Amino acid sequence: MAVLQFREALRDAIDEEMNRDENVFIMGEEVAEYNGAYKVTEGLLDKYGFKRVIDTPISELGFAGIGVGAAMKGLRPIVEFMTFNFAVLAADQIINHASKIRYMLGGQASVPIVFRGPNASAGQLGATHSVAYDSMYAHFPGLSVIYPSEPDDAKGLLKSAIRNDDTVIFMESEQMYGLKGEVSEEKDYIIPIGKAKVKREGDDVTIVATGKMYHIAKQAAQQLEKDGVEAEIIDPRTIKPFDLETVIKSIKKTHRCVIVDEAHPFGGLASEVGFLIQREAFDYLDAPVLRVCLPDVCAPFSKPLFDLWLPDAKQIIEAVNAVMYR
Amino acid sequence: MAKKKEEAVFTPTGLNKNTNGKVDKSVELPPATKKKHKELGLTDDNVIEMFEQMYLQRRFEERAMQMYQKGKFGGFLHLYIGQEAISTGTVFALDDKDDIITAYRDHGWGLVRGITAKEGMAELFGKAAGCSKGKGGSMHFAKTENHFWGGYGIVGGHIPIAGGLAFANKYNGNGQISTCFFGDGAVDQGALHETLNMSQLWKLPCVYVVENNGYSMGTAANRHTVGEIHERAKGYGMKSALFNGMDAFTVYENMKAIADDVRENSIPYFVEIRTYRYRGHSMSDPQKYRTKEELEQYQKTDPVERIKQYLLDEKIAKQKDIDATMDRIEEEVLEAVKFADETPFPEPEELYEDMFAGTPFIHDTKK
Q: In the CATH scheme, what architecture does the domain B44-340 have?
């Protein structure tokens, strides 16, 4: 195992895939000469040149669409957004085109493209830079949505995403790029899309959390352990396809579940997974499934308000206590 | 005494305008080429083929309209009638491997790029034998094996995709070029601006063509966009052209020269082709925004009649041969209607097919 930063794990995945397949290229704002807004693409221009590492203007709709067209002709574009908050400008290309073209044309074309970049909030950036979009993209048929929490997951899943024959939304976090973790040194390390991972075993309660929220859940579990509560943490890693089986298996053991979701409450990951759990494991539950998510308000700038807004370990502990009737 | 304030007006007004009988044209047609087919490098057979193609598109759509009115199929139906010289002249000017992508007024483009009348009509009827397996309908004809990448229903949505097709051609160094067609309404979309900017910056081998038919749905060009459309190219330092789209030879001559330049120099082009659509925007359009006189003036320049007359004038074909050809095409279209009516709808399980090229996953279903 090598210890790598999250950004290094991503870079290794991109590098390995670009090395393996000449059809893979990367484009986005500041990816080439600036070496990446968050240094994910550092060094790739020197290695692969201007043909395959391409700086774009600030034209999310335009370059997302150029990626879609290039993918239809057999290339494997990796389109980097500086944040998924800006990808909203490209929504027509992602939602109306990338996800639908194959079906609309009766299978005559496919769109093997990866849209990647940081998702959700990254500190006090205000309302338009703080939204978690994973559940929103997961709503649309055809899109795979990945939001890993640790460097190892990031590497194995990004390689899978680049090799995937259909469109993948791959989400990261500005606040996780510097996070270090052990990464498999296995040659050609691949993690299949759609497989959750039990990241902490426990018998008392199941906590489902991915991306940045996984780390909050981990803090909560460490705190709960001191109080004698053993939480099992499941990191779905992939929002869609969602590995419900792993979650249900855990609930059959713990009988209680808290879902941590970085998005707003209405129609998000927590509500969908909560619904599926009640349907599939109703008789196994000893308490209603609870969720910890953002309130239904925009992200505030002010530090005390922001801290109140973002899910934290304390809220998770409270939810765990509630489902355990403690 | 304070001056009486006038009420603010935004969009230039156009409806119910009194022009004392003068036709207020929504587009001015530039003159057609005076060159004969041989000067353009076209053979007699090419001209006959062009006529056949245009007549097929015309009759296909006239029959489609009838079937729609008879309730044989639903959805939207946007007719290309009046604009056939553009699809036909273009396809003769391009190499067969060059890409074509267009908006939702796409039947003519599909037919001229090898979708059969049967496959096309079956698609309109939503049948499994349709060119897009009944999944796309009128707006989503496609035949990607013939480099026709489809019709698209979001105004301007396919413009960046065209840039991507051209990007891939340049990336692969395959000598192919891409062409993208859209209406004057799409000129107002931001996607066009972003794509033109990147295309010029990256030297993408793509021809962006506005088929200016005078109306963005019911809004005349002078009511929805400012200035001359083709002059927008100047803002990008891009080469541009403006020509008549009611004459297949003019389209052929210009598109051939443009395609050669784009292929040789890997550059984009912005082209305005002036044309006219005879029918409404879609089948539900009462066309109250234009006069009967305006429509009649344009119909005098009908591209299908024009090339038919040329065949006679130049003694390329005799009237009886032309009549026989027209009868044959009429028969082909009627057979297509019969086929579309009788061929089966997709099976229920086909609802779940064609979503994925790779491993399929469909949330919350056992499929």
A: 3-Layer(aba) Sandwich (3.40)
